[in-house]
Amino acid sequence: MASPGQIMRDLIAAPEILIMPGVYDGFSARLVESMGFKAAGISGAGLSETNLGWADLGIMGYEENLRSSAALAACCAIPLQADGDTGYGNAVNVHFTVQGFERAGLAGLMLEDQVWPKRCGHLAGKEVISAEEGAEKIRAAAEARRDPSFIIKARTDATAIFGVKEAIRRLNLYAEAGADLLFADALLSAEDIALVARNVSKPLSVNMGFGIRQPQRPRSFRHASWKTWASPQSPIHAS
Length: 239
What we know:
By secondary structure, this protein is an alpha/beta fold. The chain has helices at 4-13, 26-34, 44-52, 62-75, 91-103, 131-144, 159-162, 164-177, 190-198, 224-227; strands spanning 18-19, 22-23, 40-42, 80-83, 108-112, 151-156, 181-184, 204-206, 236-238.
């Protein structure tokens, strides 16, 4: 029987765009599954806001995140990607963070290059660690997983601080370090999304939702023109 990571990996590699709705509690996870979606992403902001009543400002820690994510993975059959924030420390912390989420039944884990405490990607005032430290943490994440199919998703928040070119540079460094899926948060235009997709070496994730800064394409996203933004090595995936 295929692992959750392998199932999600196959979905990402398929020709069509994979749409992964964000979930944050048992009701939303079961609803997404019942509507026929093949996978979903756990929203760290959603967990913090629904479970703790606080905005996504680094209030929620590792144990609360892991406990909630494990419960969601157990209540539905579709593979779920968890939001690991910054990994809760340095590369050593990332090692144990990855192993914890993998043991809990998640298909993959997103890790970002913000400083801790982090901020929601669409809030002002973000800061990022160096690209080299970010790559070291992604390398630790890739080496920590026991199932090689467990997905490491590398996120950069550098766009808002240093621009799109720096985000592309960081994503390619993270891909070289072992990331399977890439994500530049808070891209502000369709043109920026296209630019990133054409210039990264691994599959690209694009975040869309009401009330965030990224451009919305809820219906036209399925159109083939979106797929042409990515090279054959870099298909677009949506969350």
